[in-house]
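Consider the tokenized backbone below.
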């Protein structure tokens, strides 16, 4: 079941590993395949070893359907994001260096670049600390996520969502770039933030038009 989608999740895992947005078996990927079903990467298996059959199918309650692998230990985070964001179809949790620096400092990533505003919607908040893999972390992350498509988790990493796997991956790349740019701008005396109105206008344009062009629908 969902063979094509399982292959797409496994392929995205290899892309995530080569992108440098995570290391080893850290981070995880999910894809919503039905209103009450999602695919998620397995726990503790390297991305380079994951095959379509290793991707775990979860039902609406987050229980793993038949399969030989255990689901990612961060499944609560993924489920909470889908519940809070009905438009979300894919969630990627990353352990990147630059976004990780902001998460380590418990600091938000400011909106200094238009691409961040377009795809993610503005500055990215850092959730209060909670241990990895807990429901407490999932709830803290969703609270800090708000209307954005990305959130930082204190002393841990980041999570992003998109309407497709490719869009979620692009959001993860833009988040990492935004964190890198913000750190470099600090050396130059500090970046100049986009205003809330500018963030909103760019995000609305992206959602209503540009993302559809990228997917060939407009
Ligand atoms: Zn993690």
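A designed sequence for it:
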């Amino acid at each position: 079941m969902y063979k094509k989608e399982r292959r797409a999740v496994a392929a995205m895992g290899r892309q995530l590993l080569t992108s440098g947005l995570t290391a080893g078996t850290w981070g995880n990927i999910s894809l919503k395949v039905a209103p009450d079903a999602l695919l998620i990467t397995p726990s503790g298996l390297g991305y380079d070893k994951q095959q379509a059959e290793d991707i775990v199918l979860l039902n609406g309650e987050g229980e793993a359907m038949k399969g030989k692998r255990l689901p990612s230990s961060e499944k609560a985070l993924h489920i909470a994001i889908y519940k809070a964001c009905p438009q979300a179809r894919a969630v990627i949790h990353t352990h990147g260096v630059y976004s990780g620096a902001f998460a380590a400092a418990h600091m938000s990533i400011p909106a200094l670049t238009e691409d961040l505003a377009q795809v993610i919607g503005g500055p990215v908040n850092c959730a209060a600390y909670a241990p990895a893999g807990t429901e407490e972390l999932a709830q803290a992350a969703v609270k800090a996520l708000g209307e954005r498509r990305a959130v930082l988790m204190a002393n841990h990493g980041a999570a992003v969502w998109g309407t497709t796997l490719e869009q979620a991956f692009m959001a993860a790349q833009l988040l990492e770039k935004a964190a890198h740019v913000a750190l470099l701008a600090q050396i130059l005396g500090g970046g100049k933030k986009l205003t809330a109105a500018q963030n909103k206008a760019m995000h609305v344009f992206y959602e209503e038009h540009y993302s559809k062009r990228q997917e060939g629908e407009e």
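The first strand starts at residue 28 and ends at 34.
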